[in-house]
Amino acid sequence: MSKWIIASLAATIFGFTMDHIVSDRKLFGGTTPKTLSKEWQDETERMKNAWPRVAGSPVVLNPLTRQNFIVKSRDS
């Protein structure tokens, strides 16, 4: 049993290491896309906040997905 646990931990560590080397360190060359810049992130956030919120009765904005959910009272 312990050999399976050790093997899975080793494989996970190896996978994360290879992902970091290939993706972050750009092992095969390439550049980071411009959509990962701070300016792009700020502009996207500004556009999301400017989006009109249209709904019927009172809504709660889910900050994680930016979706509107209709608030229902406990009576109904």
How do the strands and helices of this protein lay out in sequence?
Elements: H1 2-24, H2 38-50, E1 59-62, E2 67-70
Antiparallel strand pairs: 1-2
Provide a descriptive summary of the structure in words:
- Pfam families: DUF1138.
- This protein has 76 residues and is mainly alpha-helical.
- The chain has one domain.
- The chain contains two helices and two strands.
- The chain has helices at residues 2-24, 38-50, and strands spanning 59-62, 67-70.
- It has a two-stranded antiparallel sheet.
- The chain is flat.
Compact summary:
This protein is mainly α and 76 residues long. It has two helices and two strands, in the order ααββ.
Report the count of strand segments.
2
SS summary, helix count: 2
Query: Unreliable segments (pLDDT under 50, ≥5 consecutive)?
Result: none
Distance between the termini: 52 Å
Using only C-alpha atoms, the radius of gyration works out to 22 Å
The helix content is 40-55%
Strands side by side in the biggest sheet: 1-2
Instruction: Note the main sheet.
Output: 2 strands, antiparallel
Following the backbone from N to C, one meets helices and strands in this order, namely HHEE
Structural class: mainly alpha
Oligomer: single chain
Shape assignment: flat
Instruction: Give the total of domains.
Output: 1
InterPro entries: DUF1138 (IPR009515)
Pfam families: DUF1138
